[in-house]
Amino acid sequence: MQRSKKRAVSALLATLLLATLIAALPMTASAAVTATYRLYLGDDGLFYENDVYGTDITAEMASEGAVVTGSAGDWILTLTNFDFSSSASTALSLPGGMTLTIVLIGTNAVTSTFNGHDNTAGIWVRDFDGDVTITSSTGGSLSLAAGDATIDGGSAGIIAYETLTINGNANVTATGGYAPNMGSEGINTGNLIINESANVTATGGIGVKASLGIVAHDYIIIGGSANVTAAGGEAPYSNGIFGARSITVGDSATVSGIGGTATDSSTGIYLNDSLSISENASVTVSGGTAGGASGGESIGLNFSVTKINMTGGSLTASGNDSAISKITAPTTGKDYTVPDGHLYWVNTSNADPGGSGTESDGSFVVERLTYKFVRLEYGTPTPKLTAGAVNRTSNSNATVKFTSNIAGNFYYRVDGIVPDEGELIDIEENETAMVAGVNTITLSGLSAGVHTIYIEAFGNDKESNLLTIIIPAFTPGSSSSSSSSSTSTVPKTGDDTNMTSWGVALALSVMCVCALPVAKKRFTK
Fold this sequence. Notes:
With 525 residues, this protein is mainly beta. The protein has two domains: 33-377; 385-482, Immunoglobulin-like. It has four helices and 45 strands. It has a 19-stranded mixed sheet that branches. Strands 1-6-9-13-16-18-21-24-27-30-36-33-34 form a 13-stranded mixed sheet, with no helix packed on it. Strand 4 (66-71) and strand 5 (74-80) form a beta hairpin.
């Protein structure tokens, strides 16, 4: 009996150990699926697309890790360790007029191994009215790769003519193949939205005309903590990001645009309109090797006639020929002026100069053919005070005007000890709201004679310069005014700067002395 119990216990322990080992083994990925036709997601599910649509393979693909749910026109395609490659020009084809959400779990790949006469793509939304969202809540990844076009056509990792959105914590890599007639692109889309904590890498392949990491025909919006790297490959024109009407980067997102090796021009970002950077976002752009016999340029950021809008964050641009350039003519219109308050680092060589940045006063110009490295950090202007008109209306009253470049608060002291820098701000002496532009201080209760007023301001969390203005003495019969911060119109002993006033006073004195004997004689009679 005891021996039977021992055997039963041993068998139970062995079973538990085996179950534990099985549970500890990693889940195996689905085997790679190789096809000669493109995978087509239509109204009724997944098919292999050929001259005549074949058998519905939705169930077969589900067993390989591609599960279709939802309804026609609004499909959800969940990929779980799905590895699909096709020798067709496009690996996964989608009709227009539908919305597709691709959910990523594990490691996934959609690849075209095409080598022939046609446009080629990993994923292609074939018409101009279909939106695609790629997302993951588990850190899933998707690799998209296009084949090679041997005679004609272009090549792109993914083509979505409307809006492509990548969000959640999805990890997406898109790579273009060889393109003999058009461009080779990692991502080609109408609008591109990347946010939350998505990671995207887009790389152009070898292009006979152009190689572009990302090409967007309208706008690009990148936010959250997304990380985006776009790199051009080898081509006459190589750009990290190309063609967008506008690029907006916000929150704590990071964007890197890298130009590749080009026989003509290589640019980190080639932009048709404006670049906007806000909050803690960071944008880095660099031009690659360029030129050759064609004389093209290596430029970090090449943008059109509009502007760079920075309300936060930073921009770092570098190129072997120019860090920042406008795409305008004539040449004199190709410079960029750093806005007031921004910090800037510049270098005539393509290297970070290090050190502390310099605060722009709104007049510093980044000359396109001079500076090969430029770094900008958003900054608000420091208050700058300049003296205005002073009007002494009586012995006891006066008005003092000064100008500030920004709004904030100002502080002042009349006469007394000359304040140290920041002292009036620290003790909040005579605190008054300040406007951007002309400010007026009205004084009363002054004693006769000359006075001095000291003014400081605080705005944008920064202290201004200490402004000192002389208030002239009152001259009876007319108000005394001055526009100078240091001079008075009242003559003083030893002062030879107003000889006319001294001459008039001397003549009047002589006339009075000569008239005294005559007046005395008439009085005696």
